[in-house]
């Protein structure tokens, strides 16, 4: 009887130990708990839970859509969404309230950026439409230039939104765009491809803008990190 009781107690202790180890392992992977000394901490602990990251991308897309519904507020919404995803991936405080705090800081100075982007986009779209009409000589070339201009505009907006901070402001973010593009030309092409993806899926089915813009925010966070991780 004593042997059986000892065996049962040993089994109970073993089960508790395994449960504690599993809990510690989950905390280590998520970034919410300490890591073992022999294991290097994850670079992006918030990205280890793939389904949670997917849900956060969808939430970010919804938040950016709501904050950018006036179109001219879209740069501020993107900047806040990108900062929100950075905090989540780094396993930092990523409450939704912080997103709206960033929107409040970015929106008024960002109105000029948004209005300028809208005007420029309308001019380029008009050029493309006129070029397609056949009334202008060299219409095909003008159309290509128009689409290239839209791609450059989208690239500048996404990179500036990623570079925006409350300290640097929009002026500092816009000034940083050329240097960031020169430093990573392949990454700039990836960002342009992301903008094309958002445009295509939105054209195909407008409600898809919500997840697409969330993916764009994630791309702005992830693309520069691919070089740092090498």
TrEMBL record:
> Which ranges are annotated Basic and acidic residues under compositional bias?
18-28
- State the name under which the record lists this protein: DUF624 domain-containing protein
Question: So where does this one cross the membrane?
Answer: 57-82, 103-124, 144-164, 185-202, 208-224
Per the record, the domain of life is Bacteria
Q: Is Transmembrane helix one of the keywords UniProt gives this record?
A: yes
Q: Where is this region: Disordered?
A: 1-39
Write out the entry's keywords from A to Z.
Membrane, Transmembrane, Transmembrane helix
